[in-house]
Design brief:
The complex is a heterotrimer. Chain A is an alpha/beta fold. Chain A is about 30% helix and about 20% strand. Chain C is globular, with a radius of gyration of 12 Å. The chains are: A alpha/beta, B alpha+beta, C alpha+beta.
């Protein structure tokens, strides 16, 4: 990491000298780091809100004084974080106050962005959207949102596009972060989202982290794991990963595997479970079916790529035969994990006396076989019956505050509706009835998933794109193609955001958004918990919530009857209307009044109670009475074990590009850093991206710590500082670069290959070379 | 080096002036309290310990104000708050974080019990919450001083030390106690800022006498029964 | 070119006015004390002419009662 510059040092010395002198003259004199407001600490009012950043969904208490946020505490009443936050959460409110906050609409006129009254900018957006539809058809306009959309934002976007205009061109960046989790749940259980909840941590004996640097990415939950281990003897944490991180150091055992071989390791664990007869036979007989799908399924690199899986019924004997290729010895040969370690993992899962939770996030989801690896970890839990009980279960973590609440539950994806999918006639009829729109208006065919949507923009099939709360010009893989495509003549890009970003740089219209508690809204976190927040401060200038921007444009385009609400009550009314889609014991949402009071509520919320463990009849009112477990998401009321083989990734290091490139985050920065880099404490701790290289590789290439190196892939290159002694250490032959830094865009190098089932790209594996500069 | 020498000379000069000025003042500070007997009088800036190690300058005393073994300098309340974005925020880490610390997070080896750290020529502040061990989850290093974009952030001043209700009675606790329920961590020992250091660290049951101020209002039968 | 720091004593009652005047000078950073009228001034200039301009600007502020150099060489 960079040292302190000479000038910085001198400034620090100058301040220290003055402060020392003043302290001598006036003992007890206090100089704060922050500029003091006119209010004092007794004026501070504390209000609850979920955190703005990751999918953990910590409860915060935000201190408000004089109409501004001034401080943060962890909410001790929140069952999520129990009063503790991470450094992003504690400093989160500073994200509202960066000097370059967007406060006025900007419209590109003759190449330059010109400040424009917001009403005029909204007119322009509506007129352009209407004229594009007239000229090129409904499917030439699109909206691209994110898992940072509040639930009302996503609901209004879905109603506007699918129920109003009549196009399925609605996607969200959550496609890039948890689509494989969704398809994993759907293929294994028929219903999305985890069966358990964070309370599992307080009951489990073993935690297996699958490619998940939880100490940095989900630090508050990781602290709960550590707390559990401190309080109960024999609790172990296993870090199963491709690189050594803070999580590995804190874990009881760190197991390193070669990229992509998690597929083989999961199968090998099952092989040992079956071989040793550690299978929970009564559970499997009553609650599990076996299925095989297609193999050799491709990587989605072609523009016209399509794939449809087919499930074929098989049985336990077929499964056993399939596992013969995955003995610990065979898998050890290419995974880099010893047969002993595989047997150790299997023994932890197989021990009937131990409760086991598996956690994962981007390592498994951003994977060209993302759906498969999700299925395979479910297989392990299903074989031993360790699922849907306190302390036992697979748990898919998320990265955005409302990836679950908005993108998955409201369904802001091309194939989804607030209940079900567009392909299903009953689901379309339900949406048409609740929205009071003609049934025929909702198209039955999905259009583009995210990568395909940006490819369509490049080709010119899509002419208009409205991007809200996300930064695709930093996050798209193989970035250059999609940036060049978005900048082409005849494309109209609208961006709603709170700060200038590489995405606003390519915009024709920038709409200033109200962020977080500058408006009322709800987020839904990873454990099915919906959390409401009030408007606590006024948005700056002309800034307006994304919900209201969409409504304003929809009204201008003649869809006002779909959005009849007043500003004062629109969030409550949206919540009530949306609730009708989920009005069953399988997914009932808590009433608005409950959400306003409680630190969140977990759906299904039935008879005034959160359902902490789904499919378990002791906790879940939707499970049929008299049963122990009921996997009611599938027509046969069983969970499905899938036979999914190991298949190699599309690009593997070779002589020309000898290193694996892995990308990810750091604890200080969230997503593309557009908010966290404007928080002084966080920027100072992690000011720029870097590349972690193993010291052996560095020595071989003659690279010293801190030296600039060039990283090159078949798609692009960047220059970045090498770190040999950083917080993480890749294995030999691998490098790691965080993606938060807009001046060092690592996604210029990444590959746009995706999981054919989930369509989620793999940001964790491609081939690069490292050059001295 | 010229500048460094200047600083030392300046600091010394100011110190002498300060001693002279203060000798004319009363023993009471503005809040009517006696200065803590352990509070020290000398400036924190002493750059003689600055050295270079592996390309990263270590600003021993300048960066890590603490009390040296000889008791010659201590961290002031200013410095205590300078590390925080607002009163109650987790402080940034003022010393270099080497790769071992960065990976292992074994901060509690020093910060659980405190004591003198020769490496930084300073007494180690004690964490009020040693039960948490994912330390860098909340406390992050300072690797440079610049900002990505300037900020309009303001916050309320740190709560002032409260007056005692009666002469000699114990003052109330002016701040929240979440994650800070071990009073002695910040209020006792050589790393505690003298301004808030207790005069009686041997009495460990702090909240026997000092209680948080939960409300600004006084008891009133009518509103209390609502 | 120089970085200097000063303790600034305002004329009685003019603390806030002084603070805003100092903040307005390019190259000047102010850290007001929380519980005292004095403040720390850090000047960070990029050329000799800039340094001279800052010195001149400081001389013309009537709210300054006393300016004590604590760091730097001018």
């Amino acid at each position: 990491m960079s040292g302190v510059s000479r000038r910085t040092f001198l400034r620090m010395a100058a301040v220290s000298a003055a402060s020392a002198a003043a302290t001598t003259l006036f003992p007890g004199i206090v100089f704060g780091e922050w500029v003091h407001s006119d209010h004092d600490s007794s004026d501070v009012q504390w209000n609850k809100t979920p955190c703005r950043f990751c999918g953990v969904g910590c409860g915060l208490l935000v201190g408000i004084a004089g109409g501004r946020a001034v401080a943060v505490k962890g909410d001790p009443d929140s069952p999520v974080n129990k009063g503790l936050c991470c450094v992003k959460g504690y400093h989160s409110v500073q994200a509202l106050y960066g000097k370059d906050r967007l406060k006025k609409a900007l419209v590109r006129k003759n190449g330059t962005l010109v400040e424009t009254p917001i009403a005029e900018a909204l007119d322009l957006v509506a007129n352009t959207m209407a004229s594009t539809i007239k000229e090129h058809g409904k499917d030439a306009v699109s909206v691209y949102g994110s898992g940072q959309w509040t639930i009302p934002d996503g609901y209004v976007a879905s109603k506007f596009l699918k129920g109003g205009i009549g196009t399925n061109n609605l996607e969200a960046n959550a496609r890039l972060c948890m689509a494989s989790a969704v398809t994993g749940f759907l293929t294994s259980f028929g219903l999305d989202e985890p069966m358990g909840c964070y309370e599992d941590i307080d009951h489990a004996d073993v935690f297996v982290l699958w490619g998940n640097n939880m100490a940095e990415m989900h630090p508050v939950l990781f602290s709960r794991l550590l707390d559990r281990r401190r309080k109960k003897k024999g609790v172990v944490i296993i870090d199963l990963a491709t690189r050594t991180t803070r999580t590995s150091h804190a874990a009881d055992k760190s197991i390193l595997f070669k990229p992509q071989t998690d597929l083989a390791i999961a199968n090998a664990i099952c092989q040992v479970l079956v071989e040793n007869n550690w299978v929970n036979h009564s559970f499997v007989q009553q609650h599990v079916s076996f299925k095989a799908g297609k193999t050799d399924i491709g990587y989605g690199l072609e523009d016209d790529f399509t794939f449809k899986d087919e499930a074929r019924a098989v049985d336990l004997q077929d499964f056993q035969a399939f596992l013969a290729d995955y003995t610990p010895e065979k898998v050890a040969a290419y995974s880099g994990v010893s047969a002993d370690d595989i047997r150790y993992l299997a023994a932890l899962y197989g021990d009937p006396a131990r409760k086991v939770v598996s956690y994962w996030c981007m390592g498994m989801n951003q994977h060209t076989r993302g759906t498969w690896i999700n299925n395979l970890v479910y297989n392990i839990h299903l074989l031993v019956g360790k699922i849907s009980q306190p302390g036992n279960g697979p748990f898919s973590l998320t990265g955005q505050p409302s990836a679950c609440g908005t993108v998955r539950e409201v369904g802001t994806l091309t194939h989804k509706l607030p209940h079900g999918v567009v392909m299903n006639e009953d689901d379309r009829r339900m949406a048409a009835e609740i929205w009071k729109v003609p049934f025929e208006r909702i198209p039955a065919k999905p259009t583009h998933h995210t990568v395909s949507m940006f490819r369509a923009l490049d080709r010119g099939d899509i002419r208009f794109m409205w991007i809200q709360v996300t930064n695709p010009m930093v996050t798209m893989p193989k970035l250059k193609r999609y940036r060049d495509g978005a900048k082409k003549e005849g494309r109209f890009i609208v961006v709603s955001d709170v700060y200038p970003t590489p995405t606003t740089d390519i915009a024709d219209v920038i709409l200033p958004s109200a962020m977080w508690f500058e408006r009322e809204g709800m987020f839904g976190n990873s454990e099915r918990r919906t959390q409401h927040f009030n408007q606590l401060v006024a948005p700056p200038g002309d800034a307006m919530s994304d919900t209201w921007q969409l409504i304003e444009v929809a009204r201008r385009m003649g869809y006002g009857d779909l959005f009849p609400w007043s500003y004062d009550d629109h969030i409550r009314e949206i919540w009530r209307e949306y609730g009708r889609f989920h009005d069953s014991p399988k997914h009932a949402m808590a009433p608005y009044e409950v959400l306003r009071q409680a630190p969140g509520a977990i759906w299904p919320f039935v008879n005034g109670r959160s359902t902490k463990w789904r499919y378990n009849a002791a906790y879940d009112p939707a499970a049929s009475p008299g049963s122990d477990f009921d996997f009611y998401g599938k027509p046969d009321h069983r969970a499905w074990i899938w036979l999914r083989p190991y298949e190699p990734p599309p690009e593997i290091p070779d002589a020309a590009y000898p290193f694996w490139l892995n990308t990810g985050r750091v604890v200080e920065h969230w997503h593309t850093g557009s908010m966290t880099r404007r928080i002084p404490t966080l920027h100072r701790a992690a000011p720029a991206a870097y590349v972690e290289i193993h010291p052996h590789d560095a020595e071989r290439l003659g690279i010293r710590n801190g030296e600039s190196v060039r990283l090159v892939s078949r798609r692009g290159e960047i220059i970045v500082a090498a770190v040999l002694d950083g917080r993480g250490q890749p294995t030999v032959g691998q490098v790691f670069v965080p993606f938060f830094d807009e001046s060092k865009l690592i996604n210029e190098l990444t590959l746009d290959a995706y999981c054919p089932i989930s369509k989620q790209p793999d940001y964790k594996k491609c081939a690069v070379r490292v050059e001295k500069v | 080096m010229v500048i460094v020498v200047t600083v030392c000379v300046m600091a010394a000069a100011v110190m002498i002036v300060g001693e002279t000025l203060r000798s004319s003042r009363s023993d009471h500070d503005e809040q009517g309290r006696y200065p803590s007997p352990t509070s020290t009088r000398k400036p924190v800036t002493d750059l003689r310990h600055a050295e270079s190690r592996g390309g990263m300058p270590v600003f021993a005393a300048a960066m890590v104000p603490g009390t040296s073994r000889k008791g010659s300098h201590s961290r002031s309340l200013n410095q205590y708050y300078e590390r925080r974005a607002y009163a109650g925020a987790p402080p940034a880490i003022p010393h270099p974080v080497d790769s071992y610390m960065n990976r292992s997070q074994r901060c509690n080896v020093c910060h659980e019990r405190g004591g003198f750290a020769p490496k930084f020529n300073a007494y180690t502040p004690i964490t009020p919450h040693p039960q948490y061990t994912n330390c860098l989850q909340c406390h992050v290093a300072v690797t440079e001083e610049t900002r990505f974009v300037d900020t309009d952030w303001t916050s309320v001043p740190a709560p002032a030390i409260q007056r005692s209700a009666l002469p000699g009675s114990p003052p109330p606790i002016p701040h929240g106690l979440q994650l800070r329920d071990n009073c002695l961590a910040c209020h006792a020992g050589p790393a505690a800022p003298p301004k808030i250091r207790t005069s009686h660290p041997e009495r460990e049951n702090c909240r026997q006498c000092h209680v948080p101020k939960a409300t600004q209002t006084l008891f009133d039968r009518a509103s209390a029964s609502e | 070119m120089a970085i200097c720091s000063y303790i600034v004593y305002p004329q009685p009652g003019s603390r806030d006015a002084l603070r805003s005047k100092l903040t307005g000078i390019a190259g000047c950073d102010v850290m007001p004390a929380e519980n005292n009228d004095v403040m720390i001034l850090v000047t960070d200039t990029n050329s000799d002419s800039h340094e001279t301009a800052v010195q001149q600007a400081l001389k013309q502020i009537p709210e300054i009662q006393c300016l004590a150099l604590t760091f730097g060489d001018i």
